[in-house]
Each structure stands twice: as structure tokens, then as C-alpha cells.
Amino acid sequence: MNQKLENLLQLALQTSERVREQTEDLNVGFNSQARTWELIVKYHGSLDVLEPLGVKIEYLIAGYAILTVPELLVENIVELEQIEYVEKPKRYFYEAEMPAEGSCIPQVTLREPNLTGRGTLIAVLDSGECVR
């Protein structure tokens, strides 16, 4: 087991694609047509060495990036010195029935000064796509 890999990602990589497809979590981040994994990495230094290998890099901030990696290269990418930690994207669901409990808000609403958020509207919509 590689210490750089998130447990869920390790499980996904060790599970057959047929079985992964039957789960809601294990196949998230895998593109079966392109045979690539989308991975979130913590890194240091430069990741430029990955581009000639066909890895797409989307640099974020604070030493994080999103990599789109050909399936056969995932284990090689993890072994690079620059890569500190690798995880896969997660599937999140809209919490319609009990939104306060799903967001961990009761802890602040059940004590003085009983914050309600009345009059506040917030929406965060993210497709996960980067438009350039």
C-alpha cells in the first residue's frame, strides 16, 4: 500500500472496473472512454515533467493540482518525488430533506445567540469543468 494514496483511491484502483461501476463512490473520477483518472494532488516543485506523458494538469493554489492521468500511469505518477498526496474526487449529493443537518449548521443555531441566517441566500454551483 502506498502511503501517498488516499484509502478510497487505493480501493478503487484495486477493484475491477465492472465492480467499480456498480458503486456510487469508487468509479467517481474515472473516464471509461478515455481510460483516464481525474486525481487531486498535493505537490511541491514542478509537475511539467508529466505533460509529455499525456497528463493534463490544472494548477490550483497552495501546492494543489488536478491531474487527468491515463489509467496505466497512475501508479507511476504517485511514485514521483514531487507528489506528496493523491486522492480522487468525491460524489456529493444535494441535501434537500434535512439541509441544516447535512451542512453541520445545528451546532451554531442551537446555542446563543441562536443564529438563523434569515435573509441570507447562498448558492455554490460548480460543474467541475474549467473553461479557458
Considering the chains and any ligands shown, give keywords for the structure.
132 residues, 5 helices, alpha+beta, extended
By secondary-structure content and strand pairing, the structural class works out as alpha+beta
Overall radius of gyration = 19 Å
- Helix content, binned percent: 10-25%
Strand element count: 5
String of helices and strands: HHEEEEHEHH
Number of helical stretches of at least 4 residues: 5
Shape: extended
Largest sheet: 5 strands, antiparallel
Structural description of this entry:
This protein has 132 residues and is an alpha+beta fold. The protein has 5 helices and 5 strands; from the N terminus they run H-H-E-E-E-E-H-E-H-H. Strands 1, 2, 3, 4 and 5 form a 5-stranded antiparallel beta sheet that branches.
List the helices and strands and how they pair.
Layout: H1 7-14, H2 17-20, E1 30-31, E2 36-43, E3 56-59, E4 64-70, H3 74-78, E5 83-87, H4 99-102, H5 106-109
Antiparallel strand pairs: 1-2, 2-4, 2-5, 3-4
Q: Can you summarize this structure?
A:
With 132 residues, the chain is α+β, with helices and mostly antiparallel strands.
